[in-house]
Design a protein that fits this description.
Catalyzes the hydrolysis of the adenine ring of phosphoribosyl-AMP. Its EC number is 3.5.4.19. It contains 4 helices and 8 strands; from the N terminus they run ααββαββββββα. The chain is α+β, with helices and mostly antiparallel strands. The protein has one domain: Ubiquitin-like (UB roll), CATH 3.10.20.810. The strands form 3 sheets. The chain has a 4-stranded mixed sheet, with helices on one face. It has a two-stranded antiparallel sheet with strand order 3-4. A two-stranded antiparallel sheet has the order 7-8. The longest helix is centred in the middle third of the chain and has 10 residues. The protein starts with a helix and ends with a helix.
Length: 146
């Protein structure tokens, strides 16, 4: 844990801290990424987990439109740029170690590339795995046929 996050442990409620200094202390992994969990701000529904680098995080904070880092494409990925199913930031929080983000978002339509509201639809149970939700939109409609 960095000294910055150690100091924040004892900071009073509503105290203000320099954003650049906090971002400098964020514990990005060896690839320069941090996991970001997106949660629907009003229902608490966990929608997805993706990765952000510092540039994606700064863009998200600056614009209010959630931007991730696409590991497969090696580029910034603005949620909804292909599907139209954007995420708008309501709030962002770092965990106590500065190595995970929680994004409270307003999700427009499905969050998952499968057309489901949430990426977390494969339910693991004692006797097997069960699909817990159906797609809201056919993925071919979202992304066009391959």
């Amino acid at each position: 844990m960095t000294l910055t996050f150690k100091a924040l442990e004892r900071a009073p409620v509503d105290s203000r801290h320099d954003l650049d200094a906090v971002l400098e202390a964020v514990r990005f992994n060896a690839d320069g990424l941090i996991p970001a969990i997106a949660q629907q701000h009003d229902s608490g529904e966990v929608l997805m987990m993706a990765w952000m680098n510092r540039e994606a995080l700064e863009e998200t904070l600056r614009t209010g439109r959630v931007c991730y880092w696409s590991r497969s494409r090696g580029t910034l990925w603005r949620k909804g740029e292909s599907s139209g199913q954007q995420q708008h930031l309501k709030s962002a929080a770092l965990d106590c170690d500065g190595d995970t983000l929680l994004l409270q978002v307003e999700q427009m339509g499905p969050a998952c590339h499968t057309g489901r509201r949430s990426c977390f639809y494969v339910l693991l149970e004692q006797d097997g795995a069960r699909i817990g939700s159906a797609p809201l939109i056919d993925p071919d409609t979202l992304y066009g046929k391959a």
